[in-house]
Amino acid sequence: MDKLYKLPKTELFRYDLKCPPPAWSNDFHSVEYSKDNKGETKYKNNAGLFFFFENKNAAMLTAEKAMNRFEGSKIWLTSTTTKEEANLLDLRGGATLAMMNLLWCADIDIFNQNMTVSGMGDDTTSLSCLETLFFRVIDSNVPNDEDYHKAYLDLHKPFVCPGNPFSLLGQRLTDYENGSIFKQLLKEKNYDGYIFDESFGGSTICLLNAEKLTNPICEEYNCKRMLEWKRKYYLEIASYE
Predict the structure, then answer these.
(1) d(Cα 128, Cα 130) in Å, to the nearest integer?
(2) Got the DSSP string for 183-208?
(3) pLDDT tens readout for residues 33-85
(4) Is the pTM of this model over 0.85?
(5) What's the Cα-to-Cα distance from 173 to each of 34, 65, 167, 170, rounded to whole Å?
(6) Separation of alpha carbons 66 and 32, rounded Å
(7) What is the pLDDT of residues 85-143, one digit of tens each?
(8) How far apart, in whole angstroms, are the C-alpha atoms of residue 194 and residue 108?
(9) Residue 150 is inside which H or E element, if any?
(10) What is the pLDDT of residues 7-37, one digit of tens each?
């Protein structure tokens, strides 16, 4: 089982609902993923990691949904290119069990850390609670008995997103307080980041820092320009049919 994905020099994309700074910054946080928690602002990307889409279309389609959800009038699309090969932990596959198994095979123990299901520090559901379920499933010699099925369902339940076939575990590994812990676990194994699936149209790439990225190139899209892009996108799809 190959756990290392060598990301070649490639163009990556991300979007924002507010204008990002002209240079990469660990302190820039998306308004989409910031929340108030008892009077304190909590950032989903608390560890200052860098997340990207593999292709422009996936970034733009997701950006449009976010803009509509937040009733905005524009988005900013950022593109960059990796300057050299990056070593990524490959967690693609989508399923919770598959990702946990890949992590275990990579000697990355997420169970015996101060990591929680949601990533929030005050979450009482620690990932350690899932360790017994994980080993119950992978060590089972009778994968069709009642105990196995219950353990399998209980293991996956915390990471189910209704209507989405992809596990939330890929995101939760770096959400809120989990981020700095998982970042350190990856650094100890000499990974530059990780790659996982969370939506159709391409995988998500997370880099621990911006050292291997060229300077960001940012474009502003208002509603009119978004509509023009969308029209062109669907015309291109129709031409392939």
Answers:
(1) 5
(2) HHHHHHTT-SEEEE--STTS-EEEES
(3) 887 666 678 899 999 999 999 999 999 999 999 999 999 999 999 999 999 99
(4) yes
(5) 17, 24, 11, 6
(6) 8
(7) 999 999 998 799 999 999 999 999 999 999 999 988 777 789 999 999 999 998 876 66
(8) 12
(9) helix 146-156
(10) 999 999 999 999 999 999 999 998 888 876 6
CA distance 222 to 75: 7
User: Any idea how long the chain is?
Assistant: 241
AA letter at 7: L
Tokens of 17: 């609902």
Q: Is residue 137 within a helix (H) or strand (E), and if so which, with residue range?
A: helix 131-138
Rounded CA-CA distance 189/235 in Å is 45
Q: Which distant-in-sequence residues (6+ apart) come within 8 Å of 89 by Cβ? A: 3, 4, 5, 102, 103, 106, 108, 186, 189, 191, 193, 194, 195
